[in-house]
Design goal:
43% of the residues lie in helices and 21% in strands. The chain has 8 helices and 12 strands. α2 packs parallel to α3, α6 crosses α7 and α6 crosses α8. The longest helix is centred in the middle third of the chain and has 19 residues. The protein starts with a strand and ends in a 5-residue tail after the last strand.
């Protein structure tokens, strides 16, 4: 049985989400603040964490909790579920390593669909790829599925799991356009178009940290994105 942690400071909201999720067959543990959740995560990691940003007196307690959880696990799915709907908060949350960012007006069926999608991705990660699929070289880019790592000119690019799968989807067929829906499918995420756009922007910035001239991800307006091979 999958174990889901809910970190939410409002008791009524916390228990409502917990009740709905338990009905879907998941084991749920709830926490009202960052310290109690962090202590529990140090004892045992959840299979998925749903975190509010504002936790009691800590305005950004959820961000801090996400950082600490991501520091010990690169693969535990993390969903921010919050009333804060600004673009800045969304970008910060995703940049800190969250896999999804939802506002509290999301419907419960939609929330359950997001959870199921992230678990499908986790199950896929647990599968062993065939030998020929474990390594991928495309010009100066090297992708290692065993370690979930991407290198550019021999320098490691610090990608989240979602970003890794998006890069993999683009690089395995360079020159071919991938729609936002295709990227969503291959990353095993259920997000909207604007979130895919945010992921792509962050991926570009991470490559540009190690190479200011990086320009291999092209936007094909009205269609999606394409990985352009570096000319020899």
């Amino acid at each position: 049985m999958k174990h889901i942690a809910i970190v939410e400071d409002e008791a009524a909201i916390r228990e409502n989400y917990a009740d709905v999720i338990r009905r879907q067959g998941y084991q749920v543990h709830t926490y009202q603040d960052r310290p109690s959740a962090q202590a529990a995560f140090e004892r045992q990691l959840p299979d998925l964490a749903i975190i509010d940003i504002g936790l009691g007196s800590e305005i950004d307690g959820g961000f801090a909790l996400c950082q600490s959880l991501r520091a010990v696990s690169a693969t535990v799915p993390i969903i921010f579920l919050t009333a804060r709907d600004s673009d800045i908060d969304t970008v910060v949350g995703l940049r800190m390593g969250a896999d999804d960012y939802l506002t509290k007006d999301v419907s419960l069926p939609h929330l359950m669909a997001r959870i199921a999608a992230l678990f499908r991705r986790s199950d896929l990660l647990a599968q062993t790829p065939s030998k020929e699929d474990k390594r991928l070289q495309c010009g100066p880019l090297y992708l290692d599925l065993d370690r979930m790592q991407v290198y550019w000119h021999d320098q490691l690019i610090d990608l989240t799991v979602t970003e890794f799968w998006m890069v993999h989807a683009l690089v395995k067929r360079p020159g071919h356009v991938k729609s936002r829906q295709a990227l969503m499918d291959e990353a095993h995420a259920v997000v909207d178009d604007s979130t895919i756009t945010s992921h792509i922007k962050r991926i570009r910035k991470k490559f540009m940290v190690v190479d200011e001239q990086f320009d291999c991800i092209s936007t094909v307006y009205g269609m999606g994105y394409r990985w352009d091979e570096v000319p020899e």
